[in-house]
Amino acid sequence: MFLNSLNPVQLSAATFGDGPLLILAGAGSGKTKVLVSRVAYLVLKKGVRPEHIVAVTFTNKAADEMRKRLNELIGDKANKLWLGTFHSIGLRLLRIERNAGSETPLTVYNDDTQLSLVKQVMSELNINEKAFAPKVIQHRINCAKNENIGPEEFSLDATDFFSERVAKVYTRYQESLLKMGCMDFGDLICGPIKLLQNNASLLAKYQSRFSHLLVDEYQDTNKAQYILTQMLSGGAKTSLPWATRTSQFTVGEGRA
């Protein structure tokens, strides 16, 4: 049985009851093993439907490894999990809701296409690339989205000459994305947040759907990812195991 391979502390985390849980663990101490065991325990021992579980990692490689391990433990049920990076889960949610009301496929810009659009917008606004490096402006836009700050809020807080130029580019850039039906990586987090904030019934649907949400490397979450996590979790109603790196391994319980 998969639980037999866990030490007592790992076992207490994997079989924890309902409510928030924080796992503090050093490198190589088995955080991912605990999360995988936790998911398998919920599905096989507690009867939780896999489509009601969200498991978040920070890289596609880590997500693939977690899915591989879960396939070995719970079989095809692993394919029904909401398992992946924040961006892939955000994209999945957006595509589900978009497909319900639009036949237009959702296009996601990568870093290169995003930079090309930034340059195009700068040209339209007559902003000199030699005076304002496009990559720097791209970085500022991405940082804003990591904080869940949209163009309007960014513009209100722009108090220096450079920030004002970034605000102009950001505003036109976002308008261009929307007009083309496209998104960048930041929108894969900010988009679901905005969608759920503006639709109480939709938020309630996902909060009732997801009974368990697990996040690996929780210390690396930015503000936008944190907001989305809290929205999907529905607060203290949901079991929330967080796994994070530190110099020790302890299991703590608290309320969201």
Provide a quick synopsis of the model.
With 256 residues, the chain is of the alpha/beta class.
**H/E element sequence:** HEHEHEHEHHHHEHHEHEE
What is the name of the CATH superfamily of the largest domain? P-loop containing nucleotide triphosphate hydrolases
Provide the CATH topology of the largest domain.
Rossmann fold
What proportion of the residues is helical, as a percent range?
40-55%
Describe it for me?
The chain has 256 residues and is α/β, with parallel strands linked by helices. It folds into two domains: 2-100 and 188-253, P-loop containing nucleotide triphosphate hydrolases (Rossmann fold), CATH 3.40.50; 110-184, Arc Repressor Mutant, subunit A (Orthogonal Bundle). Helix content is 53%, strand content 13%. It contains eleven helices and eight strands. It has helices at residues 8-14, 31-44, 60-74, 86-99, 111-124, 134-146, 151-157, 161-180, 187-197, 200-209, 223-233, and strands at 20-25, 53-57, 82-85, 107-108, 182-183, 212-215, 240-245, 250-253. The chain has a three-stranded mixed β-sheet, covered by helices on one side. Strands 3-2-6 form a three-stranded parallel β-sheet, sandwiched between helices. β2 (53-57), α3 (60-74) and β3 (82-85) form a beta-alpha-beta unit. The chain is elongated, with a radius of gyration of 20 Å. Residues 246-256 have low confidence and may be disordered.
